[in-house]
Amino acid sequence: MFDMVSGMFCFVTATVSFLYGTRIFWICGKKCNFEVAPAEKKQSLKATMPGGFAVYSFGFLVVFSEVLNGTLAIVITSLISALLLSHFVISMAMPELKRNRSSYID
Q: Which candidate, 87, 82, 22, 80, places its Cα nearest to that of 57?
């Protein structure tokens, strides 16, 4: 019974962490468009990256603590995964990197 409840707690915690982290980075990526000066883009990224990275890292720590054994493996894998996912979400949310479908249609 305790294993089932702890598994549900880990699943809910990781899911909420990934949702909030994605929301933080998606808003940050939406702010970075061509009309904004590069200095403002850097400031926006510097302001939101640590918070979103911490949220993603916590979610991955919870997930990998259930899957992997060894503290060092869990921490290293969580940090690398959080770093990769955070950059992926920001780049996917940036308006200038989205594909313009009307330019491909004749």
A: 82
